Structure formats: structure tokens, C-alpha cells
Amino acid sequence: MMKNFLIPVTALMAGFFALGLITAPVMAGDAQGSMARGGKLYDKWFKVIKAETPKATHKAWPASNTKKKGNVTWRCKSCHGWDGLGKDGAYAKGSYKTGIVGVNGMWDAPIAKIVAVIKDDTHGLAGKMDAKDYQDLALFVSKGMIDMKALIDYKAKAPLNGNAARGSGYFNTVCAGCHGATGLLPKDMKPMGKQVGNPWEITHKILNGHPGEPMPGLRAFDNAGQIAMDIITHMKTFPKNR
Ligand code: HEC
Ligand code: HEC
Fold first, then answer.
1. Domain extents for the chain?
2. What does the buried/exposed string (b/e) look like for 211-220 if buried means 16 or more CB atoms within 10 Å of the residue's CB?
3. pTM score of the predicted model
4. HSE of 230, CA atoms in CB hemisphere, 13 A
């Protein structure tokens, strides 16, 4: 039964490998694990490492944005976007508009260079994490992010190309045990039918998992994002309310 799921993914990966789009270290399982952990740190690092939740608003958070304050302004995704494109991505407008650059200028950059930025004065994060945390974060920024503009219609907030039937298969085998067949669980979570309006966030969570929860990240099966597009297309059939 696993075959239906694994064969296309393996074939796809082999294809990318042949094309040179994926380099050997990225294919390695441990690199995928580190990248997923880095992705969760990018989402909410203080939750992942069980650090004290920051209280004050981050000093680099612009005064022009009064909609957000406190700990949320310390999450990488709040300033740089789920898509990593900052002011040129999904956060070009809306409650997270900051005018801050994306991290996409550092896609493929050397790990040490990215670690140096994370520890610079702007970020104020030196000494707040251990060496492996900075490494995983930097690996995620360098090699683990995908070009969401190639996958998502930014205006329609929907996948450009998703297969609902395949998505249903993924959802019912991997997600439904925790989230229910129509995305209404856990009970304290916003119904998934409502969350589906943020395909950037869902794509990130599907690839990397959710900070502090046992939710799996699927990037080792497909780090190009197509599984996420199929699942999101299926999620569009879910009820918006309980
Ligand atoms: C409060 C806003 C804010 C948060 C939170 C934030 N950054 Fe930044 N980041 C900036 C600003 C402003 C710059 C540009 C100035 C600079 O490089 O110091 C930047 C630049 C960067 C760059 C360099 C981009 C380039 O092309 O030069 C990287 C990489 C980066 N940040 C990674 C991260 C990571 C990883 C996190 C989470 C640990 C993070 N940032 C959290 C504001 C933020
Ligand atoms: C082992 C249980 C488990 C599995 C399996 C699981 N999740 Fe989750 N997921 C969670 C928990 C717990 C949360 C956090 C819920 C909360 O914030 O109240 C979560 C959060 C999320 C969120 C973020 C919600 C938010 O408000 O921030 C999304 C999106 C999501 N899951 C999608 C999925 C998808 C899609 C799958 C299948 C590929 C999946 N999950 C598989 C347990 C799971």
C-alpha cells in the first residue's frame, strides 16, 4: 500500500537528482531532519527550545506596524514571511506588513554567513540558542525553503496546481488521526477549513511540522512542496466552522 505514496515521490526525487536540482547532502535523511527542525525554529524558536517567551516587542519591529507586539515579533516568520520573501512576499500587505527584506537573498548562502546574521545586533539573538540551533536555522534558510511563488497563486491564496484526490489520500493517512477527517480537531484549534486561507503557513507546517507538537514534517518525502499543494486543495473542501 505504501507503494502508491512512495513511488512517485522517489521517482520525482530521482528526477531532480539527475537534473542536479538536489545535491547529495540535501538528499541525506539527517539533512532533512535538521532542516525540518530549522523550519520549526524559524516558525517559533522559543517554543522549540523551551526558552522563556520574550515579552518586549523586538527592537527591529517597525513602529509603523502597531498591529503586532510582544513575543510574536520575535518569530523569524513574522519579519521575513512564511515564504521567506519579506516585503516582496505574502507580507507585502496585511497585519504583518513591516517593509523588512526577505531571507531569499541568502538562499544557497554558506551556513556560517547566515549564522553571523542571526547573531548580529539587529537580531539580538546571540547567546539565546546553542550551536546546533543556529546551524539548523541557517541550513533551513540556505537549503530548506521553497519558492512559494512557483506553487501558490498569491491573489487567490490557493495552490496553482493541486490534486484533491491525492491530497485526500495523504490527509486521511497522515493527518486525520490528530486533526479529524474534516480538520475540526484538536478542539482548541481554528478549524482547518478557515486556516486554508493561509496556504503559505500550511505549506510550511506540512514540510516541517508544528513547534512543540508531535506533528510530523513531510519534507523527507517531498521537499519541493507538491504534497502540500495536494493536501491544501483537499482542505478547501473542509467546513469553516464547527
Ligand atoms: C523583528 C524583525 C526580525 C526578526 C524577528 C528576524 N529578522 Fe532577520 N532581518 C531583519 C532585518 C531588519 C534585516 C535586515 C538588516 C540586517 O541584515 O541586519 C534582517 C536580515 C536577515 C537576513 C539577511 C537577509 C539578506 O539578504 O541580507 C537573514 C538570513 C535573516 N534576517 C534571518 C533571520 C532569522 C533566521 C530569524 C529568526 C531567528 C530572523 N531573521 C528574525 C529583521 C528581523
Ligand atoms: C500527531 C498528531 C498530528 C499529526 C499527525 C498532524 N498534526 Fe497538525 N498539528 C497537531 C497539533 C497538536 C497542532 C497544534 C494545534 C494547536 O495549535 O492547538 C497542529 C497544528 C497544525 C497546523 C497549524 C495550526 C495553527 O493554528 O497554527 C496545521 C496547518 C496542521 N497542523 C496541519 C497538519 C497536516 C496537513 C497534517 C498531515 C500532513 C498534520 N497537521 C498532521 C498535531 C498533528
1. 34-145, 150-235
2. beeebbbbbb
3. 0.91
4. 17
Q: Give the tens place of pLDDT for each residue, 25-72.
A: 444 448 999 999 999 999 999 999 999 999 999 999 999 999 999 999
Q: How far, CA to CA in Å, does 51 sit from each of 3, 45, 65, 149?
A: 41, 8, 26, 33
Query: What spatial distance separates the first Cα and last Cα of the chain, rounded to whole Å?
Result: 33
Q: Whose CA is nearest to atom 26 of ligand 1?
A: 105
Nearest CA, atom 17, ligand 1: 117
Cβ 187 under 6 angstroms from ligand 2:
no
222 to 157, 163, 177, 181, 242: CA distances (angstroms): 21, 15, 21, 22, 31
Spell out the CATH class of 150-235. mainly alpha
| Cis status of the peptide bond prior to 191, with omega within 30 of 0 | no
Whether ligand 1 lies within 6 angstroms of the CB of 58 is answered as: yes
Is pLDDT above 80 for 2? no
- 141/112 Cα distance (integer angstroms): 12
Q: Are 75 and 67 in contact (CB under 8 A)?
A: no
Residue-wise DSSP of 82-133: TTS-GGGTGGGSSTT------SGGGTT--HHHHHHHHTSTTTT-TTTS-HHH
Among all ligands shown, which has an atom nearest to the Cα of 171?
Answer: 2
Taking CA atoms only, the protein residue closest to ligand 2 atom 34 is 175
